[in-house]
Amino acid sequence: MTVHPTPPEASLAGHATSPERLAAEAGALLSTRPARARTLAELALQRSPGLAVARHHLGEAMCRLGATGRGLPLIEQAVLEDPRLAHLEGGLPDTQGPSAGD
Known about the structure:
Blueprint: H1 8-13, H2 19-29, H3 34-47, H4 52-64, H5 68-81
Helix pairs in contact: 2-3, 2-4, 3-4, 4-5
């Protein structure tokens, strides 16, 4: 019998983790594990679609993964929803370079 490990995101889905906590964890992982940060931000947004900080972290994760065409609009939308997010520091990739598209 083959046993397949449960992916971390699937195990989180069943727990009573708040969207705010998921978003905070996503923010902490942006520079080291952007794919995991994207997953956590997406999960936070599934639970709380209006959570601007999760949308911002999702956008930044997308940019870090090379999908700036999809990530930057998410960041812009999040900042419009909550102007305090404009002050988050991210060190996003150069959007003028070859990775600017999807």
